Every structure is written in C-alpha cells, then in structure tokens.
Description:
Layout: E1 6-9, E2 12-13, H1 19-28, E3 36-43, E4 48-55, H2 57-74, E5 90-99, H3 103-121, E6 125-129, H4 140-143, H5 170-175, E7 178-182, E8 187-193, H6 198-208, E9 213-214, E10 235-236, E11 243-250, E12 255-262, H7 270-283, E13 288-294, H8 299-312, H9 321-332, H10 342-345, H11 347-352, H12 364-372, H13 380-403, H14 412-447, H15 454-495, H16 501-526, H17 532-563
Parallel strand pairs: 5-7, 6-7
Antiparallel strand pairs: 1-4, 1-5, 2-4, 2-5, 3-4, 8-12, 8-13, 9-10, 11-12
Helix pairs in contact: 1-2, 2-3, 6-7, 8-9, 13-14, 13-15, 13-16, 14-15, 15-16, 15-17, 16-17
Amino acid sequence: xxxxxxxxxxxxxxxxxxxxxxxxxxxxxxxxxxxxxxxxxxxxxxxxxxxxxxxxxxxxxxxxxxxxxxxxxxxxxxxxxxxxxxxxxxxxxxxxxxxxxxxxxxxxxxxxxxxxxxxxxxxxxxxxxxxxxxxxxxxxxxxxxxxxxxxxxxxxxxxxxxxxxxxxxxxxxxxxxxxxxxxxxxxxxxxxxxxxxxxxxxxxxxxxxxxxxxxxxxxxxxxxxxxxxxxxxxxxxxxxxxxxxxxxxxxxxxxxxxxxxxxxxxxxxxxxxxxxxxxxxxxxxxxxxxxxxxxxxxxxxxxxxxxxxxxxxxxxxxxxxxxxxxxxxxxxxxxxxxxxxxxxxxxxxxxxxxxxxxxxxxxxxxxxxxxxxxxxxxxxxxxxxxxxxxxxxxxxxxxxxxxxxxxxxxxxxxxxxxxxxxxxxxxxxxxxxxxxxxxxxxxxxxxxxxxxxxxxxxxxxxxxxxxxxxxxxxxxxxxxxxxxxxxxxxxxxxxxxxxxxxxxxxxxxxxxxxxxxxxxxxxxxxxxxxxxxxxxxxxxxxxxxxxxxxxxxxxxxxxxxxxx
Length: 564
C-alpha cells in the first residue's frame, strides 16, 4: 500500500497588523478538504504574517492557490510598509516535503502552482530554491532584490518572471510579485538583543550568516570596499553555514533583533546559531536576552537543543520529552518576548493534536476505571505494556540518580547512556498500551464482516487470520521490549546508586510481569490461529524470552538482597 504523501506550505503574506484580513486569508486554506492549518504567526513591526498548513500535495497546492488569490484581493502593495524585505501580497510561498515525497516531486508541485498563479491570477511569479529554472533564482534574496519598489525590473529580459505578466501595470502594482519554491524545512529564528541599534544588530548578523560581509579597508563599517582583479567586492565569509540573516529594530518590542533563516538545521541548528550569536554580541558589549521562532519548529530541533545544553552542564540526557522541551525553551530564551506553547509551536504536536493514544494520555485513575469496565478492552495486554513501561521508568530513574550522585561526576556519561536507552524503551512500551487495544478491536471488526456468500466468508476468514496475527505480534513485541528493560534494570542493580537498588528491583518485578502477562496473550491468540506453523514458532520464541526474563529477575533479586 502506498504511503500517504504530505507536504507543508508556508506562505508569507504582506499583512501583519489587521487580524481580520490575516484570518480571512489564512482560513481560505481550510476550505480545501484534507488541508490542516497549523499556525498563523503575525508580526506587527514586519507587517508580515507566516502561515503554515499541511496535507497531501494536490490539496495543498489548491489551498495555496486560493490563499494567494485571496491575498491579492485584500492586500494593496502600494500602501504596504514593513521592516521585512518583500515584493508581493503573498511574498513567498514555499512547499516543504514532510513525508513520503521527494524534493524533486515537491519542486514539480511548486512549478505547477506557480504556472497556475501566473496564468489565472495574472500575478508575476519567480520560481526559487529547488523549483528554480534559472540558477541565479535559487537564491530568494536575488529574486527579491530591489523589493516591491524595484519591480519595474520585470520588463527587463534578465528579470522576466517565470510565469505571469512582465509589465508593471496597475494590477501588478497592487499585487506585487510572488516567489514560489520548494525547499527543505527552514526555521525562521530571531535572536533578541539588549540594544536598539539595528546597525550593531546587522553587524552581528554579518558575523554569523554564511554570506558574511564585504571586506573594507580600515573601519569594517565605513572603510573603502576591497575589490578583486575583476572589480567585484571581496567578501569575508560568516561563521555559520546554511544561515541567512540581517539585523533590524522591532518597534513593537523596543529592541533590535537578528533575523536568521536556518536553511539546513542539520548543518547549523538553532542552539549553535544561538550560542554563536551570544559570542558575537558579547564582543560588541551587547547581550542576547532570548530568541523567538517564527512559525513552527520540528520536535527534533527542540530535543537536540536540550541535549546540547544538558551535555554542557554534564547532566543526563535520559529524561522525558516534556522536560527536554522545557530545558530548550529556557536555554534559548524562547519565552523572552511572550509565552512559548509547545502544543502550538512544534509541528508534530500540531499534527497529532487530539487524535493520538487515548489510553496512554488518560489519568491513572481514569485508566484504572476504564480497565475495570465490562468491555473486554483495554485488557491484560494493555496493562502488561503499561506495567512494562513503569518497570523501565524505575530503571531509568536509578540511572539518572546515579548520573547525578555526588562523587560520581566522572561517570555521568556512563549513566546518561543507560538512561537514554531506558527512555527509548519507555516510549515504545507506552505506545503498545494503545496498540494492544487497537489490535483487539481489529479482530472484533473482522468478526463483524458480512458472511452471506462464499466470497464474503473467504474474505472474512482471511481478515480474522490477519488481525489475529497482529494481535499476537503486539504482545510479543511487549515481551521483547520488557526483556530489554530487564537487562538495563539488572545493570542498575549492579552498578547504580546503591541507595536506589530496591527501586531498580521493583522495576525488575514489573518488567518480568510484563513479559509473563504479554506471553499469556500471545498464547491465547495463537491457539485460535489457522496458521499452526506461525503459532508454534512464535510460542516457542516466547518461551525462550520468558525463560531469560525469569533468570534475569532472579539475579536482580539476588543482587538486591545482598545490598540491603
């Protein structure tokens, strides 16, 4: 079965002050079925709003077309003023591959969108980044040179748009020009400074951005520009690859900022940009007070930032996702100018909102009550997975306590690595809580299929067999995950903080219970399977897992008793 393709669209419109206009344009995207509007991020000083929506490719480009059309109707570029470079009512409209789609395919959709906008809306379009057909136009800054005020250039051969009119007529004067492209995930990242000087902010931005600054004789700000033998200015590269940036003053906040575009966060992530900004600012007697993310950010970027700062503090990395996000927010000062809500700023949380893991998100009391109800699910399989998650949680706790134990400072990395492994197992076991119930429900759905004809009976029988195998595989995976947990827990009883050895032992008892409980589910489902060879094999494998788990449990208790 073909996996669902997803792309993200991040149009930037030239209106950041009138919320009625901003919302009307943004919600136009939601009129397309299958498109999910994730974020609306207006900026008053820049007079610009970044919108983010996702969906399957055809739906997204239809939504983008409607948004560009609505923006052209409601925004008059002849009246627009703002701090951010711009050239159109919809200034840029990039498409970003998110899932199961290549950059080449995404660029094809961008070209298709650009052609339609040019033909049907009579808006000049430049294709940029990976969608560009002209090499120089890969660079957005090149396309936008001269900004709106310089758009008479479109009548020149060099600047002829890829699509749409090439005359700066009355219609184009109102709508401006739109750049449509395909690019990797970009983080629009602003760094806050304790100065009001846009000139000094610009100087710091030049230190950082890949393009750097033009070399000058003597004074780096006012000295004569140094040129090469061809008369071209010689540039001094900046510190950070895949970073674009300028400095500006934001009247709304009363401070200057570095406005950075991190175009490849695997090369220069947020935390490196932030740290280097701090260093360059200090060299000029300026302090960084915090930062802000415009639009959305991938979860991994936040987790990587947390790990970076935890390592600098020599603290364990094996902590919860929630705690890591809190550390990233505080370390980067993302709450400097206002609250940072992860549920509204992290793209994965926005995509998953309200439809993931109903059991595992319950309160403990609600889960207990739900389990005790007369319905057969959640049942022993879900409880076994949850008990396993509690077991490795205790093992991870001991690893973290050991990493932070006084006198064991030189061993923090050793215990941190165990805690990280523990957190990975905890996450997987928690996922199995819901997966086990879902597997049971699939069996019930298969039994409910019609059986009026021979063909329907055949299809129903095949569906029951497939669903039953899935209901066997889920608890078997719980068994193997819980066994891996026991290995970590055993190690913590051996080398971990001796004051917490009984905590590790309780974790071991939970993990062994998870193995045994999950195995009972494997066996009862295997008994009704038509494929006897499959049933025999997986039960045999389960017996081996259980035997090993019981042996580790015995050793855990033996070690614990010797230390009490």
